[in-house]
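User: I'm preparing a small set of examples for a lab meeting where we compare how different chains pack in three dimensions. I only have the primary sequence for this one, and I'd like the structure in token form so I can line it up with the others. Please keep the answer compact; I'll paste it straight into my notes.
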Amino acid sequence: MTKIRRICNLLDIAAIVPSIIVAVVHFKLCVMIEPHANIVFQRWFDSGEKATGADAVIASINNFLTTPIPTILLAKNPVYPIPFEWWLATAVNSIIWGAFIYACYRLSSWLFKRLKIIG
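Assistant: Understood. Below is the structure token output for the 119-residue chain.
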């Protein structure tokens, strides 16, 4: 019985669900924004002009979403389809974001229990 309780404590459903939601939303946002950011990046690479206006916003959002692994470097010219490595790196990024949310939840609940703030 103690092994089951230990496993249940390790895999806390209240921590897993938000983590999965964050990972899925992160992946969806990356898939929506990355092709546009790739066009902005390619324009900058070809002409040397910095992005302005909406292009700068797209580039900034993309830089934030691709924090652990800069997937823009794995994309090819916008006329080519997105390579497999980009899809793999984006999935790993999303998993990292979800794992970070899970770790934050577990750490905060452990601290609250340790400090006797919650039951």
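A couple of notes for your slides: The CA atoms of residues 37 and 58 lie 6 Å apart. The longest helix spans residues 13-47.

User: Perfect, thanks.
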